[in-house]
Amino acid sequence: MQGKSGDRFDINEKLNGLPVELRLRAIDRLKVERLRRNKGLIYRLLLIIALIGPGILVMIADNDAGGVITYAQTGSIFGIGFFIPFVVLMVPVAYFVQEMTVRLAAVTRRGHAEMIWRRYGGFWGAFSLIDLVIANTLTLITEFIGITLGMSIFGIGEGYAVLIGILFVSTVMLTLRYHKWERVSLIIAFFNMIFIPIVLFAHPDWGMVAKTFLNWNVPGGLSAIFIYVLIANIGTTIAPWMLFFQQSSEVDKGIVPADIPSGKRDTFIGACIMGAVAISIIILTGTLVFGAQRVGSPSSYDISFILSTIASKVGMLPVKLFALGMIDAGTIAAIALTASTSWAVGEAFNWPKSINLPFIEGRKFYIPGLISMLIAALIVLAPKAPLGFINLTVQVIASIFMPAALLFLLLLVNDKQIMGKHVNKKWENAVMVTIMGVLIVMSGLYGISVLMPKLI
Fold first, then answer.
1. Could you give the angle at which helices 426-451 and 83-108 cross, rounded to 10 degrees?
2. CATH classification of 52-455 is 3.30.590.10, yes or no?
3. pTM for this structure?
């Protein structure tokens, strides 16, 4: 006992000598290792719970307010025929891409931005960082669009809604250390699933839903509006911020190679939830709103019109639940995006880079994310801003930025010097190149549809 007591004292003494962010991360890891050493069923369940986090968070945060609005717009414009099978197809794509960040985090113990700067130098590091910060700030605009629209259903004005959102996200970011930040974020993310039961209010024809998989075709043929909405759906399923967020989050959590299977399982569960929520929203608006306006008309993009149409057909209760879901989606994504920006900037400039840091010590870490959030909030408050159009455009921009982000991911995960036996297999590289190729082709088609619309 004396030896064990002495060992504990030595460990505590070593822990106390570490910087605060490393000390808290080490304590979390020690808890995980103690659970791993115990073989009972209860301990195994506790281990699974302890390792849950970044994968579910990144996928549910991907169903952000912008994503929710995009899926609602998709169903109202094109119905359910094409996009339900498409979303099902995108679920494994999202998992496949994010799984690579789990391996990178576990093996390198470094965030995504830090790895790019270290391996490819300042030019490409700056390129990827600027790409990310712009995309994150634009995406944060859509989160505040969702928060303000959701709160407006309950009579809360735009200014108050934005202020509430800023204060809540800032409080979570600045006052909670990583473990509690992750748990609170997961609790918020759980309420994103409110969209799944809402679909029952529409009384959809489930037989028609099933037939979409047997008769999958482009509604109305290839058109500029179809390409625009398709790219927006891709952009809300896989986005650059997700790569940076999950890898940095896994690092801050303290993941090691032994945790890779758990990280993959965590990501897979999150991807399935993401797909279920997206499909539910498309079925809801595809059943109740599709056909109410001419395709491509301003009303078909207008989330206020979509919600008022739902209310006119099935009452205000599902609209209020939808509004709560938008507020939740915008909040959890704003938390994730703000953290993503802070992690990336901190890693790039070798500043403190952990949510375990108190604000005074880690102010360089926290400030970039908070500034990007404030910029986005101010843009949302601009008078007469075309919010529906802005929302779809942001998703399109995310999709256009994605091939460059995927290229860096592919290069890193194939670097044997840093990844060892955890490098990609040949078939994984083939799938990744295919995904990148599709994104490039779709971006090219979108460019043609804008510059030479008569060709589409």
1. 130
2. no
3. 0.86
